Amino acid sequence: MTNDGSSGSAESPTTGTGRRGREQSAAGATISDVAAAASVSRATVSRVMNGRKVDPELAERVRQAAAELDYRPSAMARSLSLGRTQAVGVVVPDLTNPMFQEVLRGIAAGADAEGYGVVVAETAERPEREARAVRTTRSRVDALVMVAPRMTDDELAAAVAATQPVVLVNRTLPESSVPAVSVDYAEAMYEAVEHLMTLGHRSVVYLAGPAASSSNAERLAGFETAQASFGGVSFISVPCGATIADGYAAAEAVIATRATAVVAYNDLVAFGLLGRLSELGVAVPAEVSVVGFDDIDLAHFSTPPLTTVAVPRTQLGERAWKRLHEQISTPGGHSDEAGPALPESSTDLLRTHLVLRESTGPAPDAGAAREERDPGPTAWRSDVVGNVLTAGGVRIARYVTGETMRPEHSPRPYLHPVRALSGARLTSAHPADRRHLHGLSLGLPDVDGTSFWGGRTWVPGEGMTLLANHGREVSRRGPTVDPADPGVLRDEVDWLAPDGAPVFAERRVLASRTLPGAVGWALRWSSSLVAQRDLTVSGPARPRPDAAGFGGLFWRFAPVEEGTVASADGVGARACLGSRSPWLALTLRTAGSWTTVVLVQDGRERWFVRTQPYVAAGPAVAWDAPVRLAAREPLDLGLTALVLDGLHTPAAVVERWLPLAAETFGAEAAR
Fold this sequence. Notes:
single chain; 434 Repressor (Amino-terminal Domain); Rossmann fold; Beta-galactosidase, Chain A, domain 5; ten-stranded antiparallel beta sheet
């Protein structure tokens, strides 16, 4: 028959293609029509439409009848049958904020591609509304995304427990396995402050965001880390908010501080500040430099165009949907997979970058650029924060005792920040993906059941689990500078079990030298750990064969734009992971400039190496087999690092830098 029905013979009603079938199709065929046309029951049609197992011949008859009738299953009926709504919920604090709008756009795009709708709930920056919004939204959807929740950790943990499956955006739960997608706001803040320091600013204000905002707390942490890193600088935090009006209202408070630079909580706050400063006749950046956060679309069109930290807003939403869809499509959770060498993090960290525009410039009183000169010898000195290593007055490292670290991070002394002579920062401490990693430190994952590493531990049959087994390394009397050599710092460290029982007594020596020609500087870390009783040191590769070993002297590097690694066994992380090469060379690019770090180990331990999604390296203790020590027996560990400005090839490392390592600290450094 033709499409207009003007010719052709009538067919039997049972086929659904005669006059009665055409009328039903035009009005909307029902499941009963399909069942009659296919000569099957309604239940069989339902099973076929929902993808359940049905005899192939019957299934084909049903599908053919449905196609002929142009049958469209009821979305509501299908949802009831499957126990799903085919929708996900998104709870956000403020829909007027372009940052959250872009995150929502990323979630919605991913959901739409998979046939899911999106239900949105806004809490208007009121934490007391969040728990109810989460409950009511989750009752209407299959899963939930919580964007930047403002509730406390305890409240969030309770909400998450009753809300699975769920993904967090711009928020993490400490040591939790709840999937999260975020950026490292502390690291981003540090980068913003670092930019202002290079412009000569020595007085910086942070216009703080909502008190309940987790990302605001992260920014504050980065601000405080920068304060500890840069000497002679005034850092001032001023309560503000998250809106244009908040930034506008804060202008007078900023002017009263006499600061020459401001970092705003977000771009909206920065816009308000710029507007009011203009009204008050304060020139930007001639008198005050301003940095924003998020890089929303309007940042390019402000007056002046705004220097800001670019946050991958849409990608946050896209990644959040991916993590959520993994849970929806895998009922009952995931099976344990072969993981990488470090304890798996539930947090995906996306990269930020600083976008330089016209709202930042040199400090009004900034002097002429520093002339290039020989950095001179290294020297440790004490200040109000701790011990800092300088070369020609330039800070290149800080030794932190770690007393303020959380117990589950296995508190320990560490080096952070470590810098090249060029100023490039080479360490990251307390990163959002693995908060128990701190710069360059010494940690052991298992000493007779005590973790001196921090974070979660892999437990057979349970997966990654946070145990109450974390020890701590305590500086006995505080580090001291060698009176005969100011480039040497000494410390005596007691390693204590969770109950306070002594495990190791360590003698630690950090020696440093500048290299000839001002090409870089060298650091020598030597530790002798004397067992206080019979002990066994184990690594994660023992109970978990699919994981690489780690533990020992471990360097967590700062985020890089590009990085490669080489050893005597080849180039690339795959060739270097597990290598017993005596040396390792990492070439790292940040802010367009290269730094090469050459690590030379004392023994022939296997190297732990990672270049993605972050950069870390160190010779691992007890990778292949446990190390057993008798009481009073020492475990000697040592690492020499050459921190070189520029990019140096593996051939140059072998021909020039390894011999130099031996000359600088003695033959033992190049064994």
